[in-house]
Amino acid sequence: MDVTFRIRRYNPDIPGKNKPYWQEFRLADVDPNDRVLELLHRIKWEQDGTLTLRRSCAHGVCGSDAMRINGVNKLACKVLMRDINGSKVQVEPILGLPVIKDLVVDMEPFFGHYREVMPFFVNDEPVPANGRERLQSPDDRAQYDDTTKCILCAACTTSCPSFWANGKYVGPAAIVQAHRFIFDTRDRAAKERLNVLAEPNGVWRCRTIFNCTPACPRGIEVTRAIGEVKLAIQRGTTTGIVDISTIHIKEPT
């Protein structure tokens, strides 16, 4: 099949091209099982070497090739042509972050919010008697298992209208990362993270629009995780104690 790509281009260093514009490319002999990333490679290698995009593993693990494909945030390495309705593909950078060139955005604001929520394990207590590890039950692990899957691709955060409107909002990905440690029974910094997320640009900026959940290439129930963090803040505020074991919200179907 023949396919037409409509790509949003931007190059701040070339006069006349320092404003965003659309450019079309035609590809022949495209297989239905070809991935969008492979076809972008063909365009770059065969038609226009200046086309700029990020990618690393090309297997849906690193998350570096997140972009808007036909208006929806996806990883280009995971989208097959057979999954696209028709023979036209529109590709543009993810929204809400400054565009550096073509499909490459500045991820520093995103990672700045990530660092705000203390995305690391905190426990200064003495080493357990077994001298090796802090044991945890399968049920305790299950509380946060879903949010360990995040690959920091920014697809959820840059699909969020609240983030588009206010870049100071920490965004869904940062909350997902906080959830992973808040609900870990071995961690001892839940209160500090909840205090960060209770700020005006924290979790309460979420309007429960549900754009984030379908945008996640790892299938994380992002909106559910955000709801559980909101409940943890509410219960911590009203009782002075955050009993995370009693908090669970089912993602709407």
How does this model look, in words?
This protein is α+β, with helices and mostly antiparallel strands and 253 residues long. It has helices at residues 36-46, 108-116, 138-142, 161-165, 171-182, 190-197, 212-215, 222-239; strands spanning 3-9, 21-27, 66-69, 72-75, 88-92, 99-101, 104-105. The strands form two sheets. Strands 2-1-5-3-4 form a five-stranded mixed β-sheet, with helices on one face. A two-stranded antiparallel sheet has the order 6-7. Strand 6 and strand 7 (104-105) form a beta hairpin. The chain is elongated, with a radius of gyration of 21 Å.
Tell me briefly what this model is:
The protein is an alpha+beta fold and 253 residues long.
How are the SSEs ordered, and which strands pair?
Blueprint: E1 3-9, E2 21-27, H1 36-46, E3 66-69, E4 72-75, E5 88-92, E6 99-101, E7 104-105, H2 108-116, H3 138-142, H4 161-165, H5 171-182, H6 190-197, H7 212-215, H8 222-239
Parallel strand pairs: 1-5
Antiparallel strand pairs: 1-2, 3-4, 3-5, 6-7
Helix pairs in contact: 2-5, 5-6, 5-8, 6-8
